[in-house]
């Protein structure tokens, strides 16, 4: 059965998938016993929750969010380069910003699989 979804639409949907998973991995973490008091204290697993860290996280989450739209508006030649950079940066954020909790590992694997698929599809897109 052949899909009727266009390549840019599928890539955009995968960016949305990655974005939601990044957010929900953090939301689920609030339900891990002992984490919420750490958040209230401002230090989670030894990491201080500073304004700078929150700004960095906000910037990193904007990359996949922006790619949802940029997938449809960038010219194909520029799209490939921007997508490759966005996939690499987002992958580093997913791996480096995560935790070793089981739910984080599962969600990160799903995100990385989607990011790999985005990269493969973006290079298969006709120029």
3D structure, described in words:
- There is one protein chain.
- With 127 residues, this protein is mostly helical.
- It has one domain.
- Helix content is 76%, strand content 3%.
- The chain contains five helices and two strands.
- It has helices at 7-29, 35-41, 51-73, 76-96, 102-124; strands spanning 43-44, 47-48.
- It has a two-stranded antiparallel ribbon with strand order 1-2.
- A hairpin with a 2-residue loop joins β1 and β2.
- α1 packs antiparallel against α3 (51-73), α1 runs antiparallel to α5 and α4 packs antiparallel against α5 (102-124).
- It is elongated.
- The mean pLDDT is 92.
Percentage of residues in DSSP E strands: under 5%
- In terms of quaternary structure, the protein is single chain
Weakly predicted, low-confidence segments? none
* Category from helices, strands and their pairing: mainly alpha
Estimate the mean pLDDT confidence.
92
Number of helices: 5
How would you summarize the topology of this molecule?
Blueprint lengths: L6 H23 L5 H7 L1 E2 L2 E2 L2 H23 L2 H21 L5 H23 L3
Antiparallel strand pairs: 1-2
